[in-house]
Design a protein that fits this description.
By secondary structure, the chain is α/β, with parallel strands linked by helices. The chain has one domain: L-2-Hydroxyisocaproate Dehydrogenase, Chain A, domain 2 (Alpha-Beta Complex), CATH 3.90.110.10. The chain contains eleven helices and eleven strands. The strands form three sheets. Strands 3-2-1-4-5-6 form a six-stranded parallel beta sheet, sandwiched between helices. Strands 9-10-11 form a three-stranded antiparallel beta sheet. Helix 2 packs parallel to helix 10, helix 5 packs parallel to helix 6 and helix 6 packs across helix 11. The longest helix has 27 residues. The protein is globular, with a radius of gyration of 19 Å.
Length: 343
């Protein structure tokens, strides 16, 4: 199948002006949990610029979070800004339409996403419990790593409280798509804003599977194909190494999270043909219960899980190789959620 492009990644302000001119702006409340972190602050800024956001609610354990809220509130866009810290997570989330969750500890050199599990798993579980109580109808966008495990954790906690809607829980894998677009455009001498590569599987290492064969007019040597695939799979390591212990991808992840949130909002508004790759519960690969693949977004969150894009034998082998790791990560998340008790 052909992969439907969700929209050009132009400048943020240009994109927002287009939103004003094409569709009546809506009154979404968007909460960012982990709003004072390296991802959270630029993500909050980008979200403040979206005219569909009428209330931007921020939360972080850091007591300086209200200061970030005051700072953002001086930007002349429609969004009212509220900011919370400490034990005020419920107040932040109450009545949210969309909850974006970059909360957790970042990767450091030598760490895998799985190394983050013990800390971030508890953080995500607590957010899910609070969201179930205060924002039962929200769309939940999970950035906290390891996404392959944290999304199943979040789902299981929502299920425990009777608030799970599989059409409204998303693992944000958009950064893998952005990296693929950038790296392939560089290699093929294309305009990166005109490249849109479907990336399927998961959001860690070999589970990140870019379908290079879906890029029109592209041509790769086997060496280039292998190098590009490897770089896309492990692009996060490139940033961790370059930051020399100071953190992981923050600015690119912030834009990825904002871009995906904007697509969800556009779907909720009723715009047509909004398609994004995202890690969600589905049975598109029978061996695993969660898989990143193209979905059609709409008024109910996910309107339809689309068939996998066409892929060649090389890419099919990558899918097969990823399944055991994906299965293990999903089971680890489900097992954690079964044993987790609120503190």
């Amino acid at each position: 199948m052909s992969f439907v492009r969700a929209g050009r990644m132009g400048g943020v302000l240009t994109q927002q002006r287009r939103a004003y001119s094409t569709t009546t702006a809506k009154n979404f409340k968007v909460a960012v949990v982990g709003a004072y972190g390296g991802i959270g602050q630029p993500l909050a800024l980008l979200t403040k610029l979206n005219p569909d956001v009428k209330h931007l609610s921020l939360y972080d354990l850091n007591p300086a979070t209200p200061g970030a809220g005051a700072d953002l509130s001086h930007i002349p866009t429609p969004a009212k800004v509220s900011a919370f810290s400490g034990d005020e997570l419920g107040k932040c989330l109450a009545g949210s339409d969309i909850i974006i969750i970059p909360a957790g500890v970042p990767r450091k050199p030598g760490m895998t996403r799985d190394d983050l599990f013990n800390t971030n798993a508890s953080i995500v579980a607590n957010i899910a419990k609070t969201a179930a109580e205060h924002a039962p109808n929200a769309c939940h966008l999970i950035i906290s790593n390891p996404v392959n495990s944290t999304v199943p954790i979040y789902a299981e906690i929502l299920k425990r409280f009777g608030k799970y809607n599989k059409n409204k829980l998303f693992g944000v894998t958009t950064l893998d798509v952005l990296r693929a677009n950038t790296f392939i455009a560089e290699n093929q001498k294309m305009d990166p804003m005109q490249v849109n590569v479907p990336v399927i599987g998961g959001h860690a290492g070999i589970t990140i599977i870019p379908l290079l064969s879906n890029v029109p007019y592209s041509n790769y040597s086997d060496k280039d194909r292998d190098a590009l695939t490897q770089r896309i799979m492990f692009g996060g390591d490139e940033v961790v190494k370059a930051k020399a212990g100071a953190g992981s991808a923050t600015l690119s992840m912030a834009w990825a999270g904002a871009k995906f949130a904007f697509s969800v909002m556009n779907g909720l508004k009723g715009e047509q043909n909004i398609v994004e790759c995202t890690y969600v519960e589905n049975n598109i690969i029978p061996e695993v219960s969660y898989f990143s693949s193209p979905v059609l977004l709409g008024k109910n969150g996910i309107e339809k899980i689309l068939p996998l894009p066409s892929h060649n034998d090389y890419e099919a082998k990558l899918v097969k190789a990823a399944i055991p790791e994906l299965k293990s990560s999903i089971e680890k998340g489900i097992e954690f959620a079964a044993k987790w008790t609120p503190k």
